[in-house]
Amino acid sequence: MSAPVFPEGFGTRKRRSQMLAFAIFRILSITVVLILFLILGFIIYKGAGVLSWDFLTKAPSDGMTSGGIFPAIVGTLLLMLGSAVVAFPVGIMSGIYMNEYASRTGRLVRFIRLMTNNLSGVPSIVFGLFGMALFVKYLGFGDSILAGSLTLGLLSLPLVIRTTEEALKDIPDGIREGSLALGATKLQTIWKVVLPMGMPRIITGLILSLGRVSGETAPILFTCAAYFFPQLPTSIFDQCMALPYHLYVISTSGTDIEAQEPIAFGTALVLVIIVLIINLLAGLLRKYFEKKLKVK
Amino acid sequence: MEKIEAKDVNFYYGDFHALKGITMEIPQNRVVAFIGPSGCGKSTFLRLFNRMNDLIPGARLEGQILIDGNDIYSPGVRVDELRKNVGMVFQRPNPFPKSIFENVAYGLRVNGIKDRKFIAQRVEESLRGAALWNEVKDKLNASAYALSGGQQQRLCIARAMAVAPSVLLMDEPASALDPISTAKVEELICELRSQVTIVIVTHNMQQASRVSDKTAFFYMGEMVEYDDTKTIFTNPRQLATQNYITGRFG
Fold this sequence. Notes:
The structure holds two protein chains of two kinds.
Chain A: H1 10-47, H2 53-57, E1 60-61, E2 66-67, H3 70-101, H4 107-121, H5 124-138, H6 145-169, H7 173-180, H8 186-215, H9 218-221, H10 243-252, H11 257-292
Antiparallel strand pairs in A: 1-2
Helix pairs in contact in A: 1-11, 3-6, 3-8, 4-6, 5-6, 6-8, 7-8, 8-11, 10-11
Chain B: E1 2-13, E2 16-27, E3 31-35, H1 42-48, E4 59-67, E5 70-71, H2 79-85, E6 86-89, H3 100-110, H4 116-129, H5 133-136, H6 149-162, E7 167-171, H7 179-192, E8 197-201, H8 205-211, E9 214-219, E10 222-228, H9 229-234, H10 239-245
Helix pairs in contact in B: 3-4, 3-6, 4-6, 6-7
């Protein structure tokens, strides 16, 4: 028998360092989950007590020390819808343009990409300031759902553009060529093959942007959000309340901050639940579009 | 009768001179094979016939390519109409993430055909024509991705034939397939020859000799020799051709 290539016990150190590394990875990822649950649990613990039908369906009352948050829920939903109307068509079409029409490595596309990247790094309060200057003042929309939606739409635009572009970039060119070679036009190819294939991922990007919009406070601070507006808005030129801003207001000012604390946590809980529901919806939509694509 | 004519074709990718002064004629309802080492320009040349190279930025063509006597690069030509008439099968099977039925129906639909009965009939004919019908007739609604690689490639052939092209371009259609699937594709080529003019690019010299009537040998962007397949493989005029087919290089 020939001498062993590796001396006795050679693997022990390797194994030990491998086990150590795995242990560290495992502990760290468990910690992250724990922290998430801690935050969620804390909000539920503090906020679940005020949750009631009245809390969800009534306006604040008694100097915002009691009553519900209905107008803020409606306002947040309206702003999400408004920003979606602004950002989704523009963002998706820009993404399509950048990946399908413009030369992907051309100067124009590189410039647009640079700009959208920069745009996504701009602090949201700056968007708020810009929205105020342009939509509220210059275009004369006033503090309104319209101005708020436009501002939030601008804020989510980079994310929508990027995810659309990334989703389309991953679709192999062979598929496009296959379609074109059958006499399909470029538009038909995009509409019937490319977009459906990119849809699951695009949807995810859209929903992520909605989630972000629902939680933003700074952009609506000067453009839309009302401190107290108990009646529901009747037009897009009305102001509205919104959950994140309400949360801010109720925990920093008002008539009785102590008494308002449970309401603040209740508001936070509702906001979190809305985001969770949206994410769930995103999963379902994604599944639906994946199912429509016959890949299995 | 000549189906395709290339007249002094030069093609450039930016500064790279990919095709050098190629003139050739491809007769109707024949199978013509393009052979040559990788990078010799045979695929590039093939893709000129349905203007697939239009998609490449910085590419430039000189000379003329005529199909049925018409210059396919003249300004009035609609590329989608041209491609309906000049079908293509690619190296890698590229079915759409749709059902088997919809894959074949796709070309009809994008060309404005709505009659469901006609589409269903055409889909069946095309799948039969591609010798795939018996294997898929009970699962037309299943995903095309559920098929094997060889079946997918025959599906792509059916898909191309569904719009009734008069020319079928095949870019190494069997290079990603196993021997049995390859044999089926080759059989198919022989059967389709009565309906279409087929131009096939291949790395496989046995394949070229088995399926084609005429063979063109390309080297470094030039067409070195073009003749009846039998002549090319038994009695080539050029030394380079002989060296290539006997495996001395390439």
